[in-house]
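Check this:
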Amino acid sequence: MDNFIDYGKLKQNLYSFYFSENPAFPGFMSMGKIDHSKIEGPVQWAKVTSNERWNVELADVKDSNGYSLGLCPNGCTALVDTGKNGITTMRDEFWLRVVSDKISE
């Protein structure tokens, strides 16, 4: 990616991913642009806070109804991983307990 950016080969210095569970519409990675036909709603940007990883700062973690789970009362760092579809940590049992407690409230 750095070489594409350094040599000005991209329309924009970004890349995007489209994930699909439907085999008729396979997922893909796009370099230098966003395929807006694959997006519902506005694009939301997050500043990456590390040069080595896709770390972003979170103010809160919410469920699908917008209810705060209270997992980041003072903010926290999250790692965005396009190969995962869940939240993982080095201690998954902690997250499972915390999220399970919050959901059952």
Q: What stands out?
A: The two ends are 44 Å apart (CA to CA). The mean pLDDT is 76. The longest strand covers residues 15-18. Strands lie at 15-18, 28-31, 55-58, 76-79.
